[in-house]
Specification:
Pfam families: MFS_1. This is CynX/NimT family MFS transporter. It is a single chain. The chain has one domain: Growth Hormone, Chain: A (Up-down Bundle). Helix 9 packs antiparallel against helix 13. It has a two-stranded antiparallel sheet with strand order 1-2. It is an all-alpha fold and 426 residues long.
């Protein structure tokens, strides 16, 4: 039993490590240890390949969005819905992951959902208007489910290196997004200016990940054999602050994934140049996604770090939208540094605001489920505003509202406290 607490949360890196170790010890007391890994390198390779596939279905659409909308006769609002659907499904389907894992085992669920992801990419590319929307929905649902399960497998099978492997996992996410953003237009041109083949190419990495992951599914032993009920989380103010910070910063991120190339094309760049700018900005996130959480745990809390990374993000966004095009790459680098930090801090806050692994799992589900649902409204709003105004200038107001909101809720979420809940075994 875990009683409500007001004990201050750990703020330094050593305290974070102690939290992870304590959580692992709690887990060992309530469930049987998994069998020893015979080929940990194969599991690690599988984890990296799976993580690489959690962003291409999202970031590959943006560089060719103008071609897709022109080819299918979609309005800007419809295009906004197209960029919104996958993000909305990230939130709506994330809560299904623990239930599926308890029934089938995490490894088998991941294998099956990888197939669903590959099928979604195929449907999106080959079935016209209906296929584009259905495939986008399926892709978002698939990514939402897998994204909840991977961190738990990392923590279970690599408990002594959970922090390092989480960093590798985050870097793989960013790398997959960058590759798809930068390569989709060249692929489209290589395939005779066929955006369908350019987008459909990304089912190949998903199939490759399935092949490498197959041994894990065959020997999978399940992750969620013991179930805990956490009470009071949805009434906790701090939990909502963490959730809304996650959602608002994610909304800005998916606006960038979905609309930044279109914005830059509207400012005079070619589709290839716009895709490369997005790709470069995402690659820069590799730096801050590792460094920002480490720096944030040096002080007494994370409030200053949250404000800094969000201000850097807003500066990059406004620079890409309004500043002279000659300085675009500098603003794109600034945007990447800011957004890598905001995303990594959002994940770090889930751990720091939780007393143990069971609370962290439930807070993660809440933050992702509600947060990504909130985040989906941003890309749709950008498409709607563009449709109403016929340009991109007014989109700056959306950036400002989301950024200020993220700072406000981030200041609450960044305090050195724990969410106050009770935890009991089902």
């Amino acid at each position: 039993m875990t009683d409500p607490t007001t004990r201050e949360a750990p703020t330094r890196a050593t305290d974070l490590e102690e939290l992870l170790i304590d959580a692992e010890a709690d887990d060992e007391q309530v469930q049987q240890q998994p069998p020893a890994l015979h080929r940990p390198w194969l599991l690690l390779l599988g984890l990296v390949l799976v993580a690489l596939n959690l962003r291409p279905a999202l970031s590959s659409m943006a560089p060719v969005l103008n071609q897709v909308t022109a080819g299918l006769g979609l309005s800007a609002s419809a295009a906004g819905l197209l960029t919104t659907l996958p993000v909305l499904c990230l939130g709506l389907f994330a809560p299904l992951a623990p239930a599926l894992a308890r029934r089938l085992g995490s490894e088998r669920v991941i294998l099956g959902i990888l197939f669903t992801l590959a099928l979604a990419i195929l449907v999106r590319s080959a079935m016209g208007v209906a296929g584009v929307f259905i495939g986008s929905l399926m892709a978002g649902a698939s990514i939402g489910i897998i994204g909840v399960l991977l961190p738990g497998i990392v923590k279970r099978d690599f408990p002594q290196h959970a922090g390092t492997l989480t960093g590798v996992y985050t870097m793989a996410l960013c790398l997959g997004a960058a590759m798809a953003a930068g390569a989709t237009v060249p692929l489209t041109q290589y395939f005779g200016d066929s955006w369908a083949l350019g987008l459909g190419f990304w089912m190949i990495p998903a199939l490759l990940a399935m092949l490498v992951w197959l041994p894990q599914a065959r020997q999978g032993h399940g992750l969620h054999k013991v179930s805990y009920r956490v009470r009071g989380l949805w009434r906790d103010r701090l939990a909502w602050q963490v959730t809304l910070y996650m959602g608002l910063q994610s909304s800005l991120a998916y606006i960038v994934f979905g609309w930044l190339p279109s914005i830059l094309i509207g400012r005079g760049l070619s589709p290839t140049e716009a895709g490369l700018v997005l790709s470069g900005s995402v690659i820069v996130q590799l730096v801050s996604s590792l460094s920002a959480p480490w720096l944030a745990t040096r002080g007494k809390d994370q409030r200053l770090a949250i404000v800094i990374v969000m201000l850097v993000t807003l500066a990059g966004l406004f620079g890409c939208l309004y500043a002279p095009i000659s300085g675009l790459w500098g603003w794109a680098v600034l945007l990447g540094l800011g957004q890598g930090g905001t995303f990594a801090l959002a994940l770090t806050l889930i751990v720091l605001r939780s007393r143990d692994a069971h609370v962290a799992a439930n807070l993660s589900s809440m933050a992702q489920g509600v947060g990504y649902t909130v985040a989906s409204m941003g890309p749709f709003a950008v498409g709607l505003v563009h449709d109403l105004t016929g340009g991109w200038a007014a989109v700056g107001w959306i950036f400002a509202v989301l950024g200020v909101g993220a700072i406000i809720f981030g200041l609450g979420a960044g305090r050195a406290l724990h969410v106050q809940v009770t935890c009991e075994q089902r």
